[in-house]
Amino acid sequence: MKTLAALLLTCTTLAASAETVGSVSTTFKLLSPNDKVVVDVFDDPEVGGVACYLSHAKTGGYKGALGLAEDTSDASVACRQVGPISFKGKIDTQDEVFKASASFLFKHVRVVRMVDVKRNTLVYLSYSDKIIDGSPKNSVTAVPVPAELPIPVK
User: Fold this and answer.
1) Is 13 exposed, middle or buried (0-12, 13-18, 19+ CB in 10 A)?
2) What is the pLDDT of residue 62?
3) 118-138: per-residue pLDDT in tens?
4) Which terminus has fewer CB within 10 Å in the chain: N or C?
């Protein structure tokens, strides 16, 4: 039971690092919340001046209202330079920068940052995973870093 509580707290904590920009309803439900597409924004925790906008499906209905519904694997990411790029230290060539729960326990939407050293570019990949059966649906975006600022990789 303690493990389950810790898992739920971890999912909630990681999802809280994003701010919701807005949402649109995709279906109408008379007595329960509508299905939606939600747009969240989060800052890269290791790279100053880069923000990522993540759109993802949010299932409504009674199960959605209670947090028991499983959201679809549809998600898209767009990361942009929003200020001067700076690094808090050396970064991994591949690192998870965001994770949000897409079901009660076993499904997540993730964003992974990869470094293209040759082109001095940060690449962000969004995808959905599940303990047994993940999804090949994904989205990718890239943020070029100025040539005079080499990306410090570990």
Assistant:
1) exposed
2) 59
3) 999 999 999 887 666 666 788
4) N
Q: Closest Cα partner for 115 from 126, 124, 104?
A: 124
pLDDT 10s digits, 76-123: 999 999 999 999 999 999 999 988 766 655 667 889 999 999 999 999
43 contacts: CB under 8 Å, gap ≥ 6: 50, 51, 52
Encoded amino acid at 94, one letter: Q
| Residue type present at position 5 | A
140, HSE (Cβ side, Cα atoms, 13 Å): 7
**Residue-wise DSSP of the chain:** -HHHHHHHHHHHHHHTTSEEEEEEESS--SSSPPPEEEEEEEE-SSEEEEEEEEEEEE--HHHHHHT-PPPPS-EEEEEEEEEEEEESS-B-SEEEEEEEESSSSSEEEEEEEEEETTTTEEEEEEEEEESS-----EEEEEEEPPTTS---B-
